[in-house]
Amino acid sequence: MYALCCETSGKIIAVGEIERKQRWIEKHVAEIRFGVIPSNEDSAFELVKKLEEIAKNNGIEVLFYFHLTTQKNGIKIMRKAGFTDVGIIRKYYKRGQEYIDRVYLQKVL
Known about the structure:
Layout: E1 2-8, E2 11-20, E3 29-36, H1 41-57, E4 62-68, H2 72-80, E5 84-95, E6 98-108
Parallel strand pairs: 3-4
Antiparallel strand pairs: 1-2, 2-3, 4-6, 5-6
Helix pairs in contact: 1-2
């Protein structure tokens, strides 16, 4: 696992990580995750690009990202970074009586 954070004026505004899959047959694949304080999306984009570089330098060839379809800012950042949609699982999450889909994106490095 590799983790980074972005700091502005002594405050952390974004964090991100990549986690390589464990099985030998999947060692070239990693999940990428991040969180960002609203209105700091440009920093999150730069964080994603840096995580991609770290992944590539460590033999990772494929990154994947997933989230609730309602998390539009995160999905927008990933698409801007060149990730492409590969699928949706309908009704993956349930909040009370409301269902929310999960979207998957990937980038081949």
